[in-house]
Every structure is written in C-alpha cells, then in structure tokens.
Design a protein that fits this description.
Order of helices and strands of chain B: HHHHEEHHHHHHHHH
Order of helices and strands of chain A: HHHHHHHHHHH
Strand content of chain A: under 5%
Largest interface: A-B, 47 and 56 residues
Strand order of the largest sheet of chain B: 1-2
Oligomer: heterodimer
Number of strands of chain A: 0
Distance between the termini of chain A: 14 Å
Helix content of chain B: over 70%
Distance between the termini of chain B: 32 Å
Chain lengths: 269, 323
C-alpha cells in the first residue's frame, strides 16, 4: 500500500513541476527562445544545453516547448474526454436505438486511421498547432465513450437510480447527480491515458515537420535536431533533452492514471 | 484416418455491415477532403509539384471532371476505386497504387512480426507479472514496460540507432536496397522490429497484467486450486484463455496506432516503406500519395479487425453460440 502512494505522489509531483514550468516559462528561461547566439554551441555555463542550428538557446526552447506540448496534450484530451463522456453517457443511459446509433458511429470512428488522417488535414491546411490539437481531440474520444458506456450500463441498474426514477426525477437530474459521480473514477484514468497518447501523437506529428514552427514544441525540436545533423554530430544534448522531457511527462501522467486504476480496483475488492 | 478440423468461423452480420459502412464513409471522406479544403481543387488533387501548361491544365481539369457536378465526380471517384485507380503522382511519376504496393511490403515486414512478437511477449510476461504482482522482478518489469509505453517509438529508434549503429557499428546506419540477401535484410530489420515489438508488448503487457489480476480472484481459479493444480498450470491452463480476450480486442484497436508508430520508425531507419513514402510525399505536398496511403491503411486496419474477430470466435466459443 505504501508503495502505491509513493508512486502516486511521484507522478503528481512531476506533473505539477511540468505545469509550473509551462505557466512560468517567461520567468524561468535564461534567454528568449527566439534570440540568436552562436550556432551549434556545446553546453556551457551560459547555455546549459548548448545552442541549435540557428543559435537558439536549447534550454529556453525546451522550457517553452513544455507549454506547447502541454496545451496540445491537455486540450486534445479535454475535448476527447468531454465528447466520450457525453456519447458514452447518452448511449449507456438511454439504451435502445440511441445506443445502437451512437455505438455504430463509435465503431466507424474506431476504424479511421487517425494519424494518417491528421497528416492529410495538416498538409492541406498549412500546418498549425491548433488544427493538430482539435483533430486529435475530435478523433480520440472513441475508447472513452466505450468505457463510459459500459460503466453507465452498470450504474443505471443500481437501486439508487431506480429510486430516483420512482421519485420522479428528470433524466437530466439523474444523469448529473446519480450517474456522473459514479462514472468519474473510470473517466479520470482514461483522461490521463488520453493526454499521454495525445502528447506522443503530437510529438510524432511535429517530428514530421507538421507542427507550428512559431510555437516550439518538443517534437519539433527533435525533428530539427534529426534533420539538421544533431545525431551525426553527436550533439546528444540537443535531441535527447526534448525526448527525455516527453518520456518523463508522459510517464508521470501514465503513472498517475494507472495508480488511480489500481486504487479503484482494491477499493472494489 | 484423416480428420478435417473445421472451425466454424462466426462474425455477426451487424459487424460486417459496420465494417462496410466504415469503409464507405472513410472513402467518401477521402473524396470530400481535396474538394472542401482551401485552395484550388485541381492542385489539391494533383499535388503541388506538377509543371504543366495552361492548356494541359484545362484538359486535366475536364479529364478529372472538376467542371462537372459533384454527384458525377463522386460516381467517377467510386468507379476509379473499383478499378484500383488512386490517381497519379507527379512527384514520383508513377501511379499511386503501384507506388504504394511496392512500398507496402517493407511496412508489413516491420509491422507483422512486431505485432506477433509483441502479442506473445506482452501476454506471457503480463500474465506472469499479474499472477505474482508483488515479486521484485515483476515490479521492475512493470516499470520498464511503463517507460516504453510512455515514449514515442521513433525516439527510441533514434537512441538505439545512435548506440548500436553509430557508436558500436553493430547494425547498418542507413536503409537498404531491394536486392539485399536475407541476412542483410534481417540485419536491417532487427532494430526497428525490436523497437516496435517492445512498444506493442508494453501496451499488451499492461492490459494482460490487469486482466490476470482481475481473473485470478474468480471462482474457477479457486476450484482449480482445490482440484490440486499448481500455480503456473492454473495460470496457463485456465486463467490465460480468459484473460487474453481483452488483449485480443486491444490488438485490433491498436493496429492503427502501431501502424502509425511503424511509419515513424521507418523514417528513422530510412526503410523504404510507406512511412518514408508519406514523409517524402509530405515534403513535396504530393496529396494523391498521402490520400492513397490513407485509403490503403484504412483497408489494412479494417482487415486486421476482421482477422481478430475471426480469432476471437475461435478462442471464445461463447461468441459463436450467441449467434
């Protein structure tokens, strides 16, 4: 039991740290990420992580990148979770034809190859940061909807829902105050995993150069390090630092999600 | 005596119908995209790297039916699909369909072994880990798989490429040509397959572990123990079959995600597959190739789901009986 709470705390502390860095990016950065110094510099006292091909300070880029990656990850996951929650609730609560239709739509969305579709959209729409976020959000709700639906199907058969119905409460009231609080424990870990997937996807798409060059994200940094010779010139601090940031952040958020799930399991038993 | 084993393969009509509907809708979406996006539909249909005279452009415009009503264009589009005509790439100077088919085998050579290896490794290790979840080696394994789970596969690719190929020179640094020997090909495939297998395994591992943790509390396990079975044989004879069902569903749902991961890994290892093709097409804004890849990948995803449905009905007879 002790171990679980330490895991939980570790995840929480790391996530909080990244959020703080993102919020206070302007204050923390030693230089402006757009200011140009000597290019290809090694890590030094002045530039802890050196400079990139056009002379930007890599540490400052990294700190600003936290903001970009976080906005995409959290924004996309928020849209996806909200959509999944609405569709899953409606589907599980009303059953019948509503359920048939909504789950049919969900099944079709599940078949769409999402990353290739976003690549096409971003190619047509002249890559922007917001398009990637919106597209990720509107394509990634399917598994949340399924999980919420099956949980709603369980909860709606419980006695307190039946008694609310007998007392004549409206559907909207029952959904909001009886069912929603019981769905929450499944939605929270699902939200975390969606943030993780969205951030990995954003990092991958930015790696293709589809990110917004005006908004530095971690994936974009790896992309530049890879194509501008960071790998061959053994400038490991350049491509390794954004990669480690991605892994660390996703790791902590996944940790939080899984520890939530394990906790719930032990409560049920 | 020969005996014919015949699995009654069962997939519900509703499922087939949904797959067909999904195929129809995604293909229709593909028709709408270049016409609904900003910019000249002609450019959106040809890509941005053609050099043609104004007269030739006009001719192409009428040949593509862009001066005709949309319903007519839509019918023509489906006629093209039925004839496996996905358009022409001006960047590669080749038909899109033959271009993709020639590249597809490398993507499959990376993806198929990775999915199979990832499924085997993930389920067995996940089952063992869920069975004795407080043992120290199992905990360490969970941490390791969590780390892999959290990283973009292409980044792992960069790191392994750097260590094994660049620093130690154990594996080739660049991609390979079609003419290599089997050993040559295997040597080139080793690292990418290793990464994709680990990535696939990490996702299966998590689900299998959770699934075994839930299953091992059930009554049939208690009965098996009361019957006198020992630990591992309970796990592999009884629990495994039940616990693997959610993993199978995941493998199907994950196929698209893993495929996307494989596309990026290809780029890192300069493999001549669909990922590199998409990358090249993206750099030259070759829309027909991008869209062709999208369609072919859709077909692959739906095909993978069909295969898993069949497997599911073989493993879990309850699905067949329900009808």
């Amino acid at each position: 039991m002790k171990n679980k709470t330490t895991l939980n705390r570790l995840g929480l502390v790391l996530v909080a740290l990244f959020v703080l860095v993102a919020v206070f990016a302007e204050i923390i950065t030693p230089h402006s990420p757009w200011k140009r110094f000597e290019p290809y510099e090694k890590p030094s006292k002045d530039h802890w992580l050196g400079t990139n091909d056009i002379g930007n300070d890599i540490l400052s880029e990294l700190i600003y990148g936290t903001r970009a990656s976080l906005i995409v990850g959290l924004g996309a996951a928020a849209i996806a979770t909200l959509l999944g929650l609405l569709i899953g609730l409606a589907s599980g609560y009303f059953k019948g034809p509503v359920d048939e239709w909504l789950m049919g739509i969900t099944d079709i969305f599940l078949m769409i190859p999402r990353i290739p579709l976003i690549i096409i959209l971003a190619a047509f729409l002249k890559s922007s940061f917001w398009i990637i976020m919106l597209a990720l959000g509107f394509l990634w709700w399917t598994s949340t909807a399924r999980v919420v639906r099956s949980k709603t199907l369980q909860v709606r058969e419980m006695d307190f829902v039946a008694s609310s119905k007998c007392l004549g409460f409206k559907n909207r009231y029952i959904l909001l105050s009886d069912i929603l609080p019981n769905i929450f424990p499944v939605v929270v870990p699902k939200f975390m995993l969606t943030v993780a997937t969205a951030m990995i996807s954003e990092a991958s798409l930015s790696f293709l150069g589809l990110g917004d060059p005006s908004m530095k994200s971690w994936g974009l940094m790896i992309n530049f390090a890879f194509i501008k010779g960071g790998l061959i010139n053994e400038m490991w601090w350049w491509y390794l630092s954004p990669g480690v940031c991605i892994i660390l952040f996703v790791f902590s958020i996944v940790l939080l999600g899984f520890s939530f799930e394990e906790h719930r399991e032990s409560v049920i038993r | 005596m020969f005996r014919v084993y015949c699995f009654v393969v069962f997939i519900s009509k509703k499922k087939i119908l949904r797959y067909l509907l999904a195929l129809f809708i995604i293909f229709s979406l593909n028709f709408i995209l270049p016409r609904a996006m900003p910019g000249d539909p002609l450019t959106n249909l040809l890509g941005e790297e053609y050099i043609l005279s104004e007269a030739a452009l006009q001719e192409l415009r009428s040949e593509l039916g862009l001066d005709k009503p949309l319903t007519f264009q839509y019918l023509e589009y489906w006629k093209g699909i039925v004839r496996f005509d996905l358009g022409y790439s001006y960047h590669f100077n080749q038909k899109v369909i033959s271009l993709i088919l020639s590249r597809m085998k490398w993507t499959l050579a990376l993806l198929v072994p990775s999915i199979i290896l990832g499924a085997i490794l993930g389920t067995i290790l996940g089952a063992l880990s869920g069975w004795k979840r407080n043992a120290v080696p199992n905990k360490a394994m969970t941490w390791a798989f969590l780390a892999v789970y959290s990283s973009p596969p292409y980044f792992l690719g960069i790191i392994l490429l750097y260590i094994f190929a660049f620093k130690w020179g154990l594996f080739p640094f660049k991609g390979f040509y079609e003419t290599g020997t089997i050993i040559d090909i295997l040597q080139h495939l080793f690292l990418p397959v290793l990464i994709m297998s680990a990535f696939a395994a990490s996702r299966n591992y998590m689900i299998m572990r959770g699934s075994v943790i839930i299953e091992k509390e059930k009554l049939y396990v208690v009965y098996a123990r009361a019957k006198g079975l020992l630990g591992d044989s309970i796990l592999f004879r009884h629990i495994f079959k039940n616990a693997i069902l959610p993993v199978l569903t995941l493998v199907a749902l994950d196929f698209g995600f893993l495929l996307s991961g494989a596309l990026f890994v290809e780029i890192i290892f300069s493999m001549n597959g669909m990922g590199t093709l998409i990358y090249e097409a993206l750099l030259s804004r070759d829309y027909p190739v991008l869209q062709g890849c999208f369609l072919i990948i859709t077909i692959m995803v739906i095909g993978a789901n069909l295969i898993v449905d069949v497997l599911y009905s073989i493993i879990d007879p309850r699905v067949r009986e329900k009808g």
